[in-house]
Amino acid sequence: MSPQAEVTAPGNYGKRLLVCSVGLSPQVVTETLYALAVLPERRFVPTSLHLVTTQGGAPGLETGLLRPDGALDAMARDWQLPHISVLARQAQVHIVPSQDGDMSAEDDLAAFARYAATLLRQLTADDDAAVHVSLSGGRKSAAAAWALAMALYGRAQDRLSHVLVEEGFSNHPGFFYPTPFSAPLLGSQGRVLDAQDAKLRLSMLPFPRLRAYAPADFIDFNAGVEVLQQAIDRVRLTVDLDTKTLKWGAAAFRLAPSLMALLAVLADDLLAGGSGLPRLEQRATPFLAAYARLRGAVAAQRAARRLSDPLEPEWLEEKCSLINSAASRQGVRQRGMALVGRVGARPRSRYRLALDVAEVNWIGERLAA
Description:
- 37% of the residues lie in helices and 18% in strands.
- It has twelve helices and 15 strands.
- Helix 10 (285-295) runs antiparallel to helix 11.
- It is elongated.
- The mean pLDDT is 87.
Protein backbone atom coordinates (compact mmCIF):
# COMPACT_ATOMS: atom_id res chain seq x y z
CA MET A 1 0.00 0.00 0.00
CA SER A 2 1.35 3.40 -1.00
CA PRO A 3 1.84 6.08 1.69
CA GLN A 4 -1.02 8.11 0.18
CA ALA A 5 -3.35 5.09 0.19
CA GLU A 6 -2.43 4.41 3.81
CA VAL A 7 -3.22 7.98 4.84
CA THR A 8 -6.60 7.93 3.09
CA ALA A 9 -7.64 4.45 4.27
CA PRO A 10 -11.20 4.92 5.61
CA GLY A 11 -10.50 3.01 8.81
CA ASN A 12 -7.93 5.63 9.82
CA TYR A 13 -10.58 8.31 10.26
CA GLY A 14 -12.14 9.02 13.63
CA LYS A 15 -15.53 9.73 12.03
CA ARG A 16 -16.76 6.94 9.79
CA LEU A 17 -20.13 7.55 8.18
CA LEU A 18 -22.17 4.78 6.59
CA VAL A 19 -24.89 5.92 4.18
CA CYS A 20 -27.39 3.29 3.08
CA SER A 21 -30.01 3.70 0.41
CA VAL A 22 -33.02 1.71 1.60
CA GLY A 23 -36.15 0.72 -0.29
CA LEU A 24 -38.75 -1.72 0.99
CA SER A 25 -36.17 -4.26 2.18
CA PRO A 26 -34.33 -2.93 5.26
CA GLN A 27 -32.14 -6.05 5.34
CA VAL A 28 -29.62 -4.27 3.13
CA VAL A 29 -28.54 -2.24 6.18
CA THR A 30 -27.68 -5.21 8.38
CA GLU A 31 -26.11 -7.06 5.46
CA THR A 32 -23.84 -4.09 4.73
CA LEU A 33 -22.99 -3.60 8.40
CA TYR A 34 -22.12 -7.29 8.69
CA ALA A 35 -19.80 -7.10 5.70
CA LEU A 36 -18.08 -3.98 7.06
CA ALA A 37 -17.89 -4.87 10.75
CA VAL A 38 -17.39 -8.65 10.66
CA LEU A 39 -15.61 -9.57 7.45
CA PRO A 40 -11.91 -8.87 8.08
CA GLU A 41 -11.11 -7.89 4.50
CA ARG A 42 -13.67 -5.05 4.55
CA ARG A 43 -13.07 -3.75 8.07
CA PHE A 44 -14.84 -0.41 8.48
CA VAL A 45 -16.69 0.08 11.75
CA PRO A 46 -19.07 3.03 11.29
CA THR A 47 -19.44 5.67 13.97
CA SER A 48 -22.69 7.04 12.51
CA LEU A 49 -25.45 5.70 10.31
CA HIS A 50 -27.46 7.61 7.71
CA LEU A 51 -30.44 5.82 6.18
CA VAL A 52 -31.96 7.37 3.08
CA THR A 53 -35.41 6.19 2.12
CA THR A 54 -38.88 7.29 1.03
CA GLN A 55 -42.19 7.47 2.86
CA GLY A 56 -42.82 3.91 1.70
CA GLY A 57 -39.58 2.57 3.13
CA ALA A 58 -39.54 4.42 6.46
CA PRO A 59 -41.96 2.13 8.36
CA GLY A 60 -39.88 -0.96 7.58
CA LEU A 61 -36.77 0.72 8.95
CA GLU A 62 -38.44 1.48 12.25
CA THR A 63 -40.16 -1.86 12.79
CA GLY A 64 -37.47 -4.08 11.31
CA LEU A 65 -34.23 -2.38 12.33
CA LEU A 66 -34.28 0.58 14.65
CA ARG A 67 -36.75 -0.35 17.40
CA PRO A 68 -35.31 -1.84 20.61
CA ASP A 69 -34.69 -5.55 20.06
CA GLY A 70 -34.93 -5.05 16.31
CA ALA A 71 -32.52 -6.58 13.81
CA LEU A 72 -29.70 -4.15 14.64
CA ASP A 73 -29.88 -4.94 18.34
CA ALA A 74 -30.03 -8.65 17.54
CA MET A 75 -26.95 -8.37 15.35
CA ALA A 76 -25.11 -6.44 18.07
CA ARG A 77 -25.95 -9.16 20.57
CA ASP A 78 -25.22 -12.14 18.29
CA TRP A 79 -21.85 -10.84 17.10
CA GLN A 80 -20.88 -9.00 20.30
CA LEU A 81 -20.78 -5.66 18.55
CA PRO A 82 -22.30 -3.23 21.07
CA HIS A 83 -21.59 -0.23 18.87
CA ILE A 84 -24.26 -1.53 16.43
CA SER A 85 -26.91 -0.87 19.08
CA VAL A 86 -25.51 2.62 19.53
CA LEU A 87 -25.85 3.15 15.79
CA ALA A 88 -29.48 2.01 15.96
CA ARG A 89 -30.31 4.56 18.67
CA GLN A 90 -28.49 7.40 16.93
CA ALA A 91 -29.28 6.60 13.29
CA GLN A 92 -30.41 9.49 11.15
CA VAL A 93 -33.27 8.64 8.81
CA HIS A 94 -33.51 10.87 5.75
CA ILE A 95 -36.89 10.65 4.02
CA VAL A 96 -36.80 11.85 0.43
CA PRO A 97 -40.15 13.33 -0.62
CA SER A 98 -41.85 11.50 -3.47
CA GLN A 99 -45.23 11.79 -5.10
CA ASP A 100 -46.40 8.27 -4.34
CA GLY A 101 -44.14 7.38 -1.41
CA ASP A 102 -42.06 4.95 -3.44
CA MET A 103 -40.16 7.09 -5.98
CA SER A 104 -41.92 5.71 -9.04
CA ALA A 105 -43.30 8.99 -10.38
CA GLU A 106 -41.48 10.64 -13.28
CA ASP A 107 -40.08 13.58 -11.33
CA ASP A 108 -39.04 11.58 -8.27
CA LEU A 109 -35.66 10.46 -9.62
CA ALA A 110 -34.58 14.06 -10.22
CA ALA A 111 -35.68 14.95 -6.69
CA PHE A 112 -33.79 11.97 -5.27
CA ALA A 113 -30.65 12.89 -7.22
CA ARG A 114 -30.77 16.44 -5.85
CA TYR A 115 -31.28 15.12 -2.33
CA ALA A 116 -28.43 12.60 -2.58
CA ALA A 117 -26.02 15.19 -3.98
CA THR A 118 -26.94 17.74 -1.31
CA LEU A 119 -26.57 15.21 1.51
CA LEU A 120 -23.19 13.98 0.25
CA ARG A 121 -21.97 17.54 -0.19
CA GLN A 122 -22.79 18.15 3.47
CA LEU A 123 -21.29 14.91 4.77
CA THR A 124 -18.07 15.22 2.78
CA ALA A 125 -17.51 18.80 3.96
CA ASP A 126 -15.90 17.32 7.08
CA ASP A 127 -12.25 16.59 6.31
CA ASP A 128 -11.99 14.41 9.42
CA ALA A 129 -14.68 11.99 8.21
CA ALA A 130 -14.70 9.07 5.78
CA VAL A 131 -18.00 8.35 4.02
CA HIS A 132 -19.05 4.89 2.83
CA VAL A 133 -22.14 4.73 0.60
CA SER A 134 -24.01 1.48 0.05
CA LEU A 135 -26.25 1.61 -3.00
CA SER A 136 -27.69 -1.90 -2.68
CA GLY A 137 -31.14 -0.87 -1.48
CA GLY A 138 -33.95 0.89 -3.29
CA ARG A 139 -34.57 1.21 -6.97
CA LYS A 140 -31.86 0.95 -9.61
CA SER A 141 -32.48 4.59 -10.50
CA ALA A 142 -31.62 5.54 -6.91
CA ALA A 143 -28.36 3.57 -7.15
CA ALA A 144 -27.49 5.49 -10.30
CA ALA A 145 -28.14 8.77 -8.49
CA TRP A 146 -25.85 7.76 -5.61
CA ALA A 147 -23.07 6.78 -7.99
CA LEU A 148 -23.30 10.15 -9.75
CA ALA A 149 -23.37 12.02 -6.44
CA MET A 150 -20.29 10.15 -5.24
CA ALA A 151 -18.50 11.03 -8.46
CA LEU A 152 -19.34 14.67 -7.78
CA TYR A 153 -18.26 14.81 -4.14
CA GLY A 154 -16.37 11.64 -3.20
CA ARG A 155 -12.86 12.13 -1.82
CA ALA A 156 -9.86 9.81 -1.56
CA GLN A 157 -11.10 8.34 1.75
CA ASP A 158 -14.70 7.77 0.60
CA ARG A 159 -16.03 4.48 -0.73
CA LEU A 160 -18.96 3.12 -2.73
CA SER A 161 -20.14 -0.47 -2.40
CA HIS A 162 -22.80 -3.03 -3.23
CA VAL A 163 -23.55 -6.03 -1.03
CA LEU A 164 -24.23 -9.37 -2.72
CA VAL A 165 -26.12 -12.15 -0.94
CA GLU A 166 -26.30 -15.70 -2.27
CA GLU A 167 -29.48 -16.98 -3.84
CA GLY A 168 -32.11 -18.15 -1.42
CA PHE A 169 -31.16 -15.67 1.29
CA SER A 170 -31.36 -12.66 -0.99
CA ASN A 171 -34.72 -10.91 -0.45
CA HIS A 172 -35.77 -13.48 2.14
CA PRO A 173 -37.93 -11.51 4.61
CA GLY A 174 -36.50 -13.37 7.59
CA PHE A 175 -32.83 -13.07 6.71
CA PHE A 176 -30.93 -10.02 7.94
CA TYR A 177 -27.33 -11.24 8.33
CA PRO A 178 -25.33 -14.47 8.68
CA THR A 179 -25.54 -15.65 12.26
CA PRO A 180 -22.71 -17.17 14.36
CA PHE A 181 -25.02 -20.08 15.28
CA SER A 182 -27.62 -22.22 13.55
CA ALA A 183 -30.77 -20.25 12.66
CA PRO A 184 -33.09 -22.23 10.34
CA LEU A 185 -35.24 -20.37 7.83
CA LEU A 186 -37.99 -21.70 5.60
CA GLY A 187 -37.13 -20.96 2.02
CA SER A 188 -39.04 -21.32 -1.22
CA GLN A 189 -40.68 -24.63 -2.09
CA GLY A 190 -40.29 -25.83 1.50
CA ARG A 191 -36.51 -25.74 1.40
CA VAL A 192 -34.89 -25.23 4.80
CA LEU A 193 -32.07 -22.70 4.91
CA ASP A 194 -29.72 -21.84 7.74
CA ALA A 195 -28.63 -18.23 8.26
CA GLN A 196 -25.33 -19.54 9.65
CA ASP A 197 -24.48 -20.88 6.19
CA ALA A 198 -25.31 -17.70 4.28
CA LYS A 199 -22.53 -16.24 2.19
CA LEU A 200 -22.33 -12.60 1.29
CA ARG A 201 -19.65 -10.31 -0.03
CA LEU A 202 -19.19 -6.62 -0.39
CA SER A 203 -18.13 -5.43 -3.83
CA MET A 204 -16.26 -2.16 -3.79
CA LEU A 205 -17.19 -0.05 -6.80
CA PRO A 206 -14.54 2.28 -8.21
CA PHE A 207 -15.77 5.69 -9.27
CA PRO A 208 -14.17 8.81 -10.76
CA ARG A 209 -13.48 11.45 -8.12
CA LEU A 210 -14.43 14.68 -9.85
CA ARG A 211 -14.75 16.85 -6.76
CA ALA A 212 -12.02 19.26 -7.95
CA TYR A 213 -14.11 20.04 -11.03
CA ALA A 214 -17.51 20.32 -9.31
CA PRO A 215 -19.02 23.63 -8.23
CA ALA A 216 -19.02 23.87 -4.45
CA ASP A 217 -22.30 25.70 -4.03
CA PHE A 218 -24.76 24.36 -6.58
CA ILE A 219 -28.24 23.30 -5.50
CA ASP A 220 -29.75 22.01 -8.72
CA PHE A 221 -28.29 18.60 -9.59
CA ASN A 222 -28.74 19.00 -13.34
CA ALA A 223 -27.01 22.38 -13.34
CA GLY A 224 -24.16 20.98 -11.29
CA VAL A 225 -23.61 18.12 -13.72
CA GLU A 226 -23.65 20.58 -16.62
CA VAL A 227 -20.99 22.77 -15.01
CA LEU A 228 -18.93 19.68 -14.23
CA GLN A 229 -19.15 18.47 -17.81
CA GLN A 230 -17.97 21.81 -19.11
CA ALA A 231 -14.89 21.55 -16.89
CA ILE A 232 -14.15 17.99 -17.98
CA ASP A 233 -14.49 18.89 -21.64
CA ARG A 234 -11.27 20.90 -21.30
CA VAL A 235 -12.44 24.28 -22.50
CA ARG A 236 -9.59 25.82 -24.48
CA LEU A 237 -8.12 29.28 -24.27
CA THR A 238 -7.63 30.67 -27.78
CA VAL A 239 -5.00 33.38 -28.26
CA ASP A 240 -4.81 35.23 -31.58
CA LEU A 241 -2.67 38.35 -31.36
CA ASP A 242 -3.00 39.20 -35.05
CA THR A 243 -6.79 39.54 -34.83
CA LYS A 244 -6.61 40.78 -31.22
CA THR A 245 -8.88 37.91 -30.17
CA LEU A 246 -9.16 35.98 -26.93
CA LYS A 247 -11.71 33.22 -26.43
CA TRP A 248 -12.61 30.82 -23.62
CA GLY A 249 -14.21 27.96 -25.47
CA ALA A 250 -16.61 29.66 -27.89
CA ALA A 251 -17.10 32.75 -25.72
CA ALA A 252 -15.18 35.98 -26.13
CA PHE A 253 -12.76 36.80 -23.32
CA ARG A 254 -12.12 40.54 -23.11
CA LEU A 255 -8.97 42.05 -21.66
CA ALA A 256 -7.25 45.40 -21.93
CA PRO A 257 -4.32 45.28 -24.42
CA SER A 258 -1.67 45.30 -21.68
CA LEU A 259 -3.38 42.40 -19.89
CA MET A 260 -3.89 40.47 -23.11
CA ALA A 261 -0.23 40.93 -23.98
CA LEU A 262 0.87 39.58 -20.62
CA LEU A 263 -1.58 36.67 -20.88
CA ALA A 264 -0.08 35.90 -24.29
CA VAL A 265 3.39 35.81 -22.74
CA LEU A 266 2.15 33.40 -20.07
CA ALA A 267 0.49 31.19 -22.72
CA ASP A 268 3.61 31.24 -24.88
CA ASP A 269 5.75 30.24 -21.91
CA LEU A 270 3.43 27.31 -21.18
CA LEU A 271 3.50 26.09 -24.77
CA ALA A 272 7.29 26.37 -24.80
CA GLY A 273 7.53 24.12 -21.74
CA GLY A 274 8.62 26.98 -19.48
CA SER A 275 8.24 27.12 -15.72
CA GLY A 276 6.40 30.44 -15.59
CA LEU A 277 7.43 34.08 -15.36
CA PRO A 278 9.73 34.90 -12.43
CA ARG A 279 8.54 37.63 -10.10
CA LEU A 280 12.11 38.92 -10.15
CA GLU A 281 14.17 39.49 -13.26
CA GLN A 282 11.41 38.97 -15.83
CA ARG A 283 12.57 40.68 -19.00
CA ALA A 284 10.18 43.13 -20.68
CA THR A 285 11.03 41.96 -24.21
CA PRO A 286 8.34 39.24 -24.59
CA PHE A 287 5.66 41.56 -23.21
CA LEU A 288 6.65 44.38 -25.59
CA ALA A 289 6.65 41.97 -28.54
CA ALA A 290 3.10 40.86 -27.74
CA TYR A 291 2.01 44.43 -27.09
CA ALA A 292 3.40 45.52 -30.47
CA ARG A 293 1.30 42.82 -32.17
CA LEU A 294 -1.77 44.24 -30.48
CA ARG A 295 -1.18 47.99 -30.54
CA GLY A 296 1.52 48.58 -33.09
CA ALA A 297 5.23 49.45 -32.93
CA VAL A 298 4.79 53.10 -31.90
CA ALA A 299 2.60 52.19 -28.94
CA ALA A 300 5.08 49.51 -27.94
CA GLN A 301 7.92 52.05 -28.00
CA ARG A 302 5.96 54.36 -25.71
CA ALA A 303 5.26 51.44 -23.38
CA ALA A 304 8.96 50.57 -23.33
CA ARG A 305 9.79 54.05 -22.08
CA ARG A 306 7.32 53.65 -19.19
CA LEU A 307 8.42 50.18 -18.16
CA SER A 308 11.57 49.06 -16.44
CA ASP A 309 13.55 46.13 -17.77
CA PRO A 310 13.45 43.74 -15.92
CA LEU A 311 9.80 44.36 -15.10
CA GLU A 312 8.99 45.66 -11.66
CA PRO A 313 7.76 42.78 -9.43
CA GLU A 314 4.84 44.90 -8.24
CA TRP A 315 3.80 45.64 -11.85
CA LEU A 316 3.87 41.97 -12.76
CA GLU A 317 1.93 40.98 -9.65
CA GLU A 318 -0.70 43.65 -10.24
CA LYS A 319 -1.23 42.69 -13.88
CA CYS A 320 -1.61 38.99 -13.02
CA SER A 321 -4.14 39.90 -10.35
CA LEU A 322 -6.11 42.01 -12.84
CA ILE A 323 -6.14 39.12 -15.34
CA ASN A 324 -7.56 36.82 -12.65
CA SER A 325 -10.21 39.34 -11.66
CA ALA A 326 -11.32 39.81 -15.27
CA ALA A 327 -11.31 36.06 -15.83
CA SER A 328 -13.44 35.47 -12.76
CA ARG A 329 -15.99 38.08 -13.82
CA GLN A 330 -16.29 36.52 -17.27
CA GLY A 331 -16.54 32.91 -16.09
CA VAL A 332 -13.04 31.94 -17.19
CA ARG A 333 -12.19 29.61 -14.35
CA GLN A 334 -10.07 26.52 -14.69
CA ARG A 335 -11.32 23.74 -12.38
CA GLY A 336 -12.30 26.39 -9.84
CA MET A 337 -8.78 27.86 -9.74
CA ALA A 338 -7.44 31.25 -10.74
CA LEU A 339 -6.43 31.43 -14.40
CA VAL A 340 -2.95 32.64 -13.45
CA GLY A 341 -1.38 30.91 -10.49
CA ARG A 342 1.61 31.80 -8.39
CA VAL A 343 4.02 29.04 -7.41
CA GLY A 344 6.84 29.17 -4.92
CA ALA A 345 7.52 31.53 -2.05
CA ARG A 346 8.40 35.17 -2.39
CA PRO A 347 10.59 36.71 -3.55
CA ARG A 348 11.43 33.80 -5.86
CA SER A 349 7.85 32.97 -6.83
CA ARG A 350 6.77 32.55 -10.44
CA TYR A 351 3.53 33.24 -12.30
CA ARG A 352 2.17 30.45 -14.45
CA LEU A 353 -0.94 29.88 -16.52
CA ALA A 354 -3.04 27.31 -14.65
CA LEU A 355 -3.81 25.28 -17.78
CA ASP A 356 -2.47 22.23 -19.53
CA VAL A 357 -0.71 22.60 -22.86
CA ALA A 358 -3.67 20.91 -24.58
CA GLU A 359 -5.97 23.61 -23.23
CA VAL A 360 -4.26 26.47 -25.09
CA ASN A 361 -4.99 27.12 -28.75
CA TRP A 362 -2.43 29.56 -30.16
CA ILE A 363 -3.17 31.00 -33.57
CA GLY A 364 -0.48 32.65 -35.65
CA GLU A 365 3.22 33.17 -35.08
CA ARG A 366 4.49 32.33 -31.62
CA LEU A 367 6.41 34.80 -29.49
CA ALA A 368 9.09 32.23 -28.74
CA ALA A 369 9.46 31.16 -32.37
